[in-house]
Design brief:
The chain is mainly beta and 281 residues long. It is built from no helices and 20 strands. The radius of gyration is 20 Å and the shape is globular.
């Protein structure tokens, strides 16, 4: 099985030579933008950065995650705005594999998730993922390994984090929970989790992106599949957009593929569990 990898093609060499904004009869030429490649990963210093890939810390450095170095488990790196990179942590499966989220919390520490690895295995014998904290220098502490509960009812294979205004972290797992279709969880900075939502197909299935907390205090997110509508190409549903209160009350706001006149393309290979310690590059 393979990870879903989002590829951005051609951005490093692209140039924009002019953008025109039209207001009534007046066109304004905006200054051309130049894109500069600061660093090309070579798998020795990491590779395939993805997920919540960069955060600028209070110390001015850029911190990010790379999912596929030469050993296949991923790294955390620190980089200057000029492109000088320092690998500050290499994952070794026991403390996680396939990092996919990194945020700097209001206490100055970094928190993140890995999609696999850790102390507990899912039903297929793959590490179910971790929640960790890390200092600005790269000292990492695993706070929680998913699938700690019988049947992985606490979720497995987390994806992304957001720190809410109440200080806790909120995230989702792509699988696990009471129906093995994914969960939404809350976890304290010390690593105590609470499952808030169990996806069951009708309200979504297999979330694969981080939540956001909006100005109204609610959380918003998407699921890759599930919902009210399905097609030949998406028999499990085309996915949903939802909102959730801090206490876990979920409302489906939209089920995709709801329009009657549409052309549904053949989807890419169906999402599958990330393979522990596998590099696709």
């Amino acid at each position: 099985m393979q990870r879903i990898v989002n590829k951005l093609n051609g951005l490093s060499s692209a140039k924009t030579y002019g953008v025109f904004v039209l207001y009534a009869t007046m066109a304004i030429a905006l200054r051309a933008q130049t894109y500069t490649t600061l660093l090309s990963f070579d798998f020795k210093d990491g590779g395939k950065p993805q997920g919540q890939a960069l955060v600028q810390a209070t110390n001015g450095y850029l911190y990010g995650i790379a999912s596929a170095p030469s050993d296949g488990n991923g790294t955390v790196f620190r980089m200057t705005t000029g492109g000088v990179l320092t690998t500050i942590h290499k994952f070794h499966d026991s403390d996680g594999s396939g990092p996919n989220g990194l945020v700097q919390a209001n206490n100055g520490e970094f928190y993140g998730t890995t999609s696999s690895g850790g102390a507990n295995l899912d039903a297929e014998g793959i590490g179910a993922g971790t929640f960790f904290k890390m200092t600005a220098g790269g000292a990492l502490t695993t706070l929680y390994s998913f699938c700690a509960q019988s049947g992985c009812t606490d979720g497995e294979h987390p994806i992304g984090l957001v720190q809410a205004t109440n200080g806790d972290f909120y995230g989702m797992t792509t699988l696990g929970g009471t129906t093995n279709q994914g969960t939404i969880f809350k976890i304290t900075p010390s690593g105590t989790p609470t499952t808030l939502v169990n996806f069951d197909g009708t309200n979504g299935y297999a979330p694969n992106a981080a939540l956001i907390q909006a100005t109204d205090g609610n959380f918003y997110g998407t699921t890759f599949e599930g919902g009210a509508n399905c097609t030949t190409n998406f028999p499990a549903g085309c996915g949903t957009l939802f909102k959730m209160t801090r206490s876990g009350t979920l409302t489906t706001l939209y089920s995709f593929c709801s329009q009657t006149a549409r052309t549904v393309p053949t989807p890419p290979a169906r999402w599958s569990r990330p393979t522990m310690g596998t590099s696709t590059g």
